[in-house]
Every structure is written in structure tokens, then in C-alpha cells.
Amino acid sequence: MRRVTFDLDVLRTFVTGMELGSFAKAAERLGRSTSAVSAQLKKLEEQAATPVFRKAGRGLALTEAGETMLSYARRLIELNDEAASAIRDVELEGRVRLGLQEDFGEAVLPEVLGRFARAHPKVRIEARIGRSHELAERVVSGSLDIALAWHDGTILPYSRHVAEVQARWIGPAKPMQAGHNGEALPLVLFEAPCLLRTVATETLDRAGLAWRMAFSSPSLGGIWAAVAAGLGLTIRTDIGLPATVRAIAPGVLGLPLLPMMALHLHQKDAELDPVAARLAEILLEAALDTLPEGARFGEGLRAVA
């Protein structure tokens, strides 16, 4: 049997398109034209020597062979990226201190730590999950090397705009009442100071809607539990939502549209050392892969993920 060597660039396009749910979006993310992406998908089916896609309404779905191909493609790309990293930075050692928003804790942190540790076993990583203002303060004070956080308007010396993500009203997964009959809207929010707490209350104030603080918590787990129990609504993005809650469209329950949230990568120094720079690269790749549809990428970041 003739041996086939799959093109990793083609596989990366294939995986990106399936994860984004659109190969037009994949073309934008990867900085390629739609015709170039179409040619890559044609090449994939030629190399596979079997149909990978099937028609599904106006779009495409995977065949059984395509589903198998997707699983292997993800593994091949991950192994390729780890190998490239390990060879390039084979002598990396030392310590790096990373900060993350709670939103990215479960969705991003395990992948980042796993990829980095496999490629650079001599490096010790210290990770901290926290809120925006705390992470920014720790970067400025030098107790964190890098941090991925929502931007609250504070100007930091070395901060990179990663993306803008739509803030959403979040309620329980179970059906809700059509409205609150003029009563103050119950809110479930972090204890102050909190960027999203301020965004929620100021948005409601501008819309002339009454609200009351029904529950506050120092942890995201407490927020999810209270919302799931029906104590009130909160605001987050679509990132990392548990199955017990759901996003609510603007206008439902009379809720106003929320603003976009700016996601920034803060760093301690203008030029990161090789250890922190490599971790930042992996962090951005993983974070961009989790961003929901409609997120707007920062300058130069379309082709990172």
C-alpha cells in the first residue's frame, strides 16, 4: 500500500474550520483566502483517498472517515507543535509565573500547563487564578510574569490587546419567566471591586432598569451555583459556561445589550525572557481557540490559533 504523508498545514486548516464551524472563518483566522482553503480541503480528500465531507443542507458535515480524520489531525498538530517547541527551546529552564481569569481556568489552563510541561520539563510554572484588577496589580508589582485578563481601562506599561468578546446576560439553564413585572432585576455578581459587576449595574442604570443585588460571591463557582438555583442573573462571556446556566439574548426579559469586553495579555517586561515568551505563545493559542463566535481579534493575532 502506498504510504501517505499528510500535509500539516492542510490538517491545521481542517481542524480550525471544524472547530470554528466555518471554513470561511478558518480562512480569516489563518490569514488565507477562501479559495486557498478550498484547495487545501480538496487536497485532504485526495490524500485520504476517501470522502471526508458530505452535504448537510447548505453546509458540510463529516463522513465517518472525516470524523476519524479529525481526531487524528488534532493529535498530529499537537504533537508537531510540541516537537517544534521542544527542539527550538530544548534548554529552557527556570520559573515562570502565570495569571488567568477564572473564566479561562477550566477551559484553557489544563491544556496550557500540559503542553508546556511536556515540551519544557525543566521549567517550573506557578499559576494563579484571579480577577482582572488583582492580576493587573500583580503584573505591575512583578509578582506575575504574564496574565490574561479582561481590560478594565487601567493603563499598564506592557499590555497587548488580544480580542474583544461580547458580554452576555447569564441565567439558569431551566426556562425562565417572561419578565419581572416591574420588580427590580435580581443580580448575582462578584463582590466589589469587579469589572463585570460595574458593567452590569452601569448598563442597567443607563437603560433606566431597576436592579437589586440578590447574591454576591468571591468565587466563580459560587456565582454559577446561585444563577443555576434561580437567585438572579449574572454577566459573563460565552467562555467556560457550565451546563447549569445559559446565555440570554438581549431583549429577552427586557434586558439591554451589553458591551464587548477587551481581553488583554499583560506582561511584566517589555521583552519577555524566553521561558515567559514561550508560555505566552502557548497561552494565546489556547485562549484564542476558546473564543466564541463574533469575537474580534487583536491586530496580528488572526493567525496565532
Explain what you see:
- This protein is α/β, with parallel strands linked by helices.
- The chain has nine helices and 13 strands.
- The strands form four sheets. It has a six-stranded mixed β-sheet with strand order 4-3-5-12-6-13, with helices on both faces.
- A hairpin with a 2-residue loop joins strand 1 (53-56) and strand 2 (59-62).
- Helix 4 crosses helix 5 and helix 5 (109-119) runs antiparallel to helix 9.
- It is globular and about 70 Å long.
- 31% of the residues are buried.
The total beta strand count reads 13
In whole angstroms, the N-to-C terminal distance is 35 Å
What is the mean pLDDT? Answer: 86
Structural class: alpha/beta
Biggest sheet record: 6 strands, mixed
Shape: globular
Number of H- or I-type helical stretches: 9
- Which series of helices and strands comes N to C? HHHEEHEHEHEEEEHEHEEEHE
- What is the share of helical residues? 25-40%
Flag low-confidence runs.
300-305
- Rg (CA only): 22 Å
Strand content: 15-25%
Spatial ordering of strands, largest sheet: 4-3-5-12-6-13
Which labels suit this protein?
24% strand; disordered C terminus; 39% helix; six-stranded mixed sheet; alpha/beta; three-stranded antiparallel sheet; 305 residues
What's the short story on this structure?
This protein has 305 residues and is α/β, with parallel strands linked by helices. It has nine helices and 13 strands. The chain has helices at residues 8-20, 23-30, 34-48, 64-88, 109-119, 132-141, 195-206, 220-228, 274-290, and strands spanning 53-56, 59-62, 94-101, 123-130, 146-150, 159-166, 168-172, 185-190, 211-217, 234-236, 245-248, 260-267, 296-297.
